[in-house]
Amino acid sequence: MIPLQNYLIFSAMLFSVGLAGALTRRNAILVLVGIELMLNAANLNFVAFWRFSSDPNAMAGLMFVLFSIAIAAAEAAVGLALIIAIYRHYKTTNLEKVNSLKG
Amino acid sequence: MMVQSSSLYLIPLMPLLAAGLIAVTRQPHRRFAASLAIGAMGISLLLSISAFVSTLGQTSAGAARSFSNFDWLQIGPATLRLGWVLDPLSAIMLVMVTFVGLLIFIYSVGYMAHDDNFTRFFCFLSLFAAAMLGLVIANNLLLLFMCWELVGLASYLLIGFWYHKPSAAAAAKKAFITTRIGDVVFLLGIVWLYSQAGTLLFYDHGHGCLEHLKLSELAGRTTVGGLAVSTGIGLLIFCGAIGKSGQVPLHVWLPDAMEGPTPVSALIHAATMVAAGVFLVARVYPLMAEPIPAPVGFVSAPFISALPVVAWVGAITAVFAACIAVAQTDIKRILAYSTVSQLGFMMIGLGVGGVAVGMFHLITHAFFKALLFMGAGSVIHGCHEEQDIRRLGGLKKYMPVTFATYAIGMMALSGVPLFFSGFWSKDGILEAAHTWKPSQGPFYLAAFGALLTAFYMTRQVCYVFFGNYRGAKGDHSHAADSLHGGEPHESPRVMTMPLAILAVFAVVLGFIGTPAWPWFQNYLGGENLPSGVGELFRHDVLYTILISTVIVTVGIGLGWRLYGGKPVTNPNEVDVLERWRPDIYGLLRNKFYVDELYEVTVIRFNAWFAAFCDSLDYWVWNGAVLAVSYLIVGIAWVDRVFDEYVINLGFDESCKGIADGGRLFSRLQNGRVQNYLRVIGVALAALVIFLVWGRKAS
Amino acid sequence: MQFAFAIIAALTLVSGIAAMSLRNLVHCALCLAVTFAGLAAMYLQLHAQFISFAQVLVYIGAVAILVVFAILLTRSGEPVTHPVVHSSWIVGVIIALLVFGVLTKVILSSSISSAALHPLPPKDGPSVREIGNSLMIDYVLPLQVIGLLLTAATIGAVIIAMHEPKISQPPASTPRVNGAEVPHASGHSAELTHHP
């Protein structure tokens, strides 16, 4: 069997990849993509912990992940809508150009 | 109406008020100014006559004296009191000053008629008259000194009346400064007197400084060199008289004072102001004379009074000035030196004979000298401002009235016997000098002086009135008198009338002081000298009468022989004396080079001292002030530097620091999302580290 | 099993890195989909079948597509000339590495790794009935909230991304309607007031 820490380390890797992308890419969409990756890594964490839990009938981990997926989808929708709106105003998705605090 | 001594102040007050009113009058109002001045003088004359009358008929000099004193200034516990005194001395002077003054005022109306500053002239004349009258009635030496200074001021103003002439301005300055030297010593004498006697009042019910109590006190004390205090004070006061009355060595201002208009010369420098010095000596005579009875302290040494000094100074002056007068060619200069010489005579009289002798000559001199000066003024006016006697001549037929009065004055001055006042007054002096015990020197000098007087007056009269007119005839350059033509003419009535009046007095006045009827001496001296024709033939009296007659005859004869017999025809012709002895003549003509001597010594020293003081002021005092100011500037500069660099810089730096800090912190809010994200990432890592390992460590 | 895990992990990781670093955004989106798929496979391995299906359906079917749509709508798919990363991309990478390091350290030093975790008895994973039961009974409240959330998110996304009709301005118009005059207004709020 694969030990738990493998999963955890893998999810940490995925998480940091997502974070690196969110921190370095200029395009706003890719920042969102990075965030999605991070969320997925977290989901993986939850599932891994659920799998290795001692209680056979515990469902909490799964439920959490379920809800997380739903929320991630909603959030992706709203975020991308926002990016589209911002694109309409600034005519660009370059985050370096979108830096004025007042509209 | 009798004038009380308490209302004596009215006499000088009248001219003073006139002077004040005229000072605010405008120049065109000539008649008003002149009538104001003459009117005031007339009132003063009336008051003086009534004051004089009130002093007559008194038994002694002491009884004839009345005074009134008042408190003037309070200085701590001491009170300074001033006052007026009416005694024979002041009464006779009052009458003389007001009478002669009035005549000269009237004369000035004619003389100054062409002058633009007519009104100003009368203002100054009135001021002078007020000061002189105040001087005469003063009962306090300080009040006398104040009026003395005022008289000097009026003299300065009048000598420099034509101030745009540089020579006149210089002469006025010279007069003022020279008399000032005398006045400083005078003031020292006053201060000394006050410190010794405690009072400056002359007469004060026995406590005055001229009264017996104080006098014996002063005479009893001694000072430097065994000199009595009263003698010392008297000598100092006499120095003031030396300055004012033009004795040697301070005589140099009088001849230069002839730059002023002729009425000024007549009034001030003949009759009144220069006589103030003689009057002063007469006034403080008790201080200068030997006290009677002899003071207690003096047993062995003889008492030395100040009078011998007075007599000798006068004698030297008399001869000195007479010598110079022989070689002068300006009509007024001759008269000026004659005045100096006659003042010397008066001093001799005071020194050897007493108050009455000196004062008699003063009174007679006032009248005939004023007459002579006014006559000279008439000549100058008639010959179109010509003053050089070599260019005059033959005026006898052009100006008969002037000639007649001038001749009378000349004979009075020379001392022509019996009928002329000068004879009797000069005779009194010679007699007193002859009977003076200490020395006969003054007598011989006085005799020589009288000889010279007769000589130079004859010379002058011959030059001016005899012979032919040597002036420029037909000279139409005198624009203002174009209707006169070039010939000399007689002066108007307003000028010749005073001449005539004075001429009468020049004759008549002599008779009040002859030995046959010594009214004047009795009046002033309070004695009761015997009278009667027999007095004339007393030994010493007769002796001096004969001596004076001889002197006068020799003098006039010599003069007539040299100048009258062959009158000079050419104006450029060299004088007889000059041909005979040019070196002596040159010395006399240049006034014994006294002025040059002063120029080299005193004036040069003064200039050097003034330059020294100036450099002291510039380098030392100025330097100190500059040093202080530079110090302040330096401090201010340091302050500024400190403020600019230290304080400002510190403040600027702290502000910049705050700004930089703010700028730094604003980067946290720069609107870049990914930066926020990065911070969150770092914070996450830090938090985890802290939570996991930080806890573990602790 | 380990081998499978390794392959799936490598695939997912590589495609994740590709998704983050490719130049062409469409390629990124596609790689993202692959990443999601790899994760689904990993869920399967963990006997969480329902989750993996949900992952495929939602993430790959909705989120990835949404990303593609967004790329399309923002014209980000066109080739670009400027650099795609920040001038300071190193900092981001370092921070990411730092976080990774911290996490790894925590994981490795915790009791999870030290304790010998035996493989558990094979768990088949819950059946759909069990998932449904726990959803409706134990977790009914979060379910309702999730429903509300999804509704709000949908409506919000629609409103935010809706194209505003351009309003031409008459001269004497009413005072500013929250920046409605400006053509390129930032006025979502104008939108809100405009439509009842």
Commentary on this structure:
The complex is a heterotrimer of chains A (103), B (698) and C (196). Chain A has 103 residues and is mostly helical. Chain A has a domain at 26-90. Chain A contains 3 helices and no strands. Chain A has helices at residues 4-24, 28-51, 60-90. In chain A, helix 1 (4-24) packs antiparallel against helix 2 and helix 2 packs antiparallel against helix 3. The longest helix of chain A is centred in the C-terminal third of the chain and has 31 residues, at 60-90. Chain A starts with a helix and ends in a 13-residue tail after the last helix. By secondary structure, chain B is an all-alpha fold. Chain B has helices at residues 10-23, 30-55, 61-64, 88-111, 118-137, 141-159, 166-197, 212-220, 229-244, 253-256, 262-271, 273-283, 285-288, 307-326, 331-353, 355-382, 395-398, 400-414, 421-434, 441-465, 493-508, 519-525, 539-564, 576-580, 582-589, 594-666, 673-697, and strands spanning 66-75, 78-86. A two-stranded antiparallel ribbon of chain B has the order 1-2. In chain B, helix 4 (88-111) packs parallel to helix 16. Chain B is elongated and about 160 Å long. Chain C has helices spanning 2-21, 25-45, 49-73, 89-109, 111-114, 128-138, 140-161, 188-194. In chain C, 67% of the residues lie in helices and 0% in strands. Chain C has 196 residues and is mainly α. The model of chain C is unreliable at 176-196 (pLDDT under 50). Chain C is globular. Among the domains of chain C are: 1-76, Four Helix Bundle (Hemerythrin (Met), subunit A) (Up-down Bundle); 127-162. Classes of the chains: A mainly alpha (103), B mainly alpha (698), C mainly alpha (196).
Which features characterize this protein?
heterotrimer; B: 698 residues; mainly alpha; two-stranded antiparallel sheet; 2 strands; 69% helix; C: 196 residues; Four Helix Bundle (Hemerythrin (Met), subunit A); 0% strand
Strand order across the largest sheet of chain B: 1-2
Radius of gyration of chain B: 39 Å
Rg of chain A (CA only): 17 Å
Overall number of strands of chain B: 2
Which runs of chain A of at least 5 residues are low in confidence (pLDDT < 50)?
Answer: none
Quaternary: heterotrimer
As residue ranges, the low-confidence spans of chain B are: 475-485
Determine the N-to-C terminus distance of chain B: 134 Å
Helix share bin of chain A: over 70%
Strand coverage percent of chain B: under 5%
Instruction: Look at the helices and sheets of chain A and give the structural class.
Output: mainly alpha
